[in-house]
Specification:
alpha+beta, CD2-Gal4, 2 domains, two-stranded antiparallel sheet, 14 helices, 43% helix
Length: 481
Amino acid sequence: MVGVPGKYKGCNTCRVRRVKCDNTRPLCKKCTDYGRECGGYERETVFIIGTQDDKGRVGSHPPRNIQQSRAVQSEASTQHATGLEFVAAEPLQPAWHETVLLKSGPNSQLIRFVAQHADLDSAINHSSSSSEAHEVSLSLLDSQPLDVTPTFRKEDFNLKSVCFVSLPEASDDSTVGSDEGQNSSTMYAKEPPWNDMSTLSDAIRELGPGAYQAFPAHHFFARVYRPSAVWASLLNRQPTFLCNPEWTVVPWEHYPRTSLDDLLDVVVLLPSIYSRADHITLLKADADRQLKARELLDDCISIEAQFDIWHSVIQQGIRLPYWVDDPKSASIPFNEPLSFASPLLCLVHVYYWAVLIGFHQCIYALVEVIREPEKKRSSPRTAAGLPPGLDPRKYQPTETRELAALVCRSLDFALRTTAQPDLLVAPTWVVKDFYNRMNAIGSCELESLWVNDFVERREVRGREMSVWLEEKQWIGIRRFG
């Protein structure tokens, strides 16, 4: 029975996840501890009505159905304007594949995926010389480079995007042209700066996770929005709604997952950890503070175990994911650059190592709180100790420096092989910030110079892609945000 008091126990979020709730009021502790948005204990009374139009079917979640219908209406209006409808061909490939086979009526086209940061207000030029009224050209060279510097302010994260497709001209001897010329470009607008996720209430979230199960919405969510939003949440150290279970499952109900998708499922738990750690460090130095740090450290160890499981799956699936490249292409201080079995594996490891830098710094800070000298404590209560088996040396800056070096040794390969250079902006910022902190104690000067040089090379690569994209005519097929 729906809406009957006392019939169901637990908060709405735990009920959806089918897990036991601790029934803490007003918000469930199990949700808040892991950065999930607690749905509270309000029960909605739903009137179930079946009509002839829906053939007797009933729905117990009307808001979600309404949200999905809005997404369908938005896509239908765009397709009506262009006269084109694109559907991904079976069998569906993961969104992180560099190409996707699309069907439009009886025709099929192999589309290469490209994503470029731009200012949408000035990037789209409606072409008066084009034979097709709905074709546009792009002006990208005036767009400023993507800036991921955190602001630590509680503001909305906003990301707008337009998905374009550029199709080859028809020829007499081929129904499907060469790869060059068949390119899909997803453009997302510059939002200076990246902002906090905790109060997000934009069009992306309002549509619900079910709106991102088909092309091009799924590719936008998996390749553009989710990585950007997770990094924004990490760098601003604020929780994100993307850690809710439905956002890690529903968009992939039809598309296969990749190791990068699985990695982000774990990474998205960290912003809540960082936020709690920042709160603990500001507390009065006493035994209560140490106990809170110990509790949070236990949660960190649990998440670290999830990272270890994910990493073991990677190693089991691929015998040699990366190796040392030709030293001739190296530059000081990284004399052993890495090559990878695939561009995706490179991006996966760059993200993994960059995330561990911040994660290990957080654990190291908590260890320092727990091991605080006795004279700094104002309370005589017994302090909490470190968890059994935890080796604090693993999280010291000297060890974290090795992670930063692995990221830098991988960036050149990533830059050569990616069609989304903006995906490298956040990991580069992480290592640059780490080296800047080390510079304060007179270390890592050469590493800082190398990172600054790489930032320039990444921006050059972005301008080269912009020139290439400006040479084509594009058809807008979907807007997001």
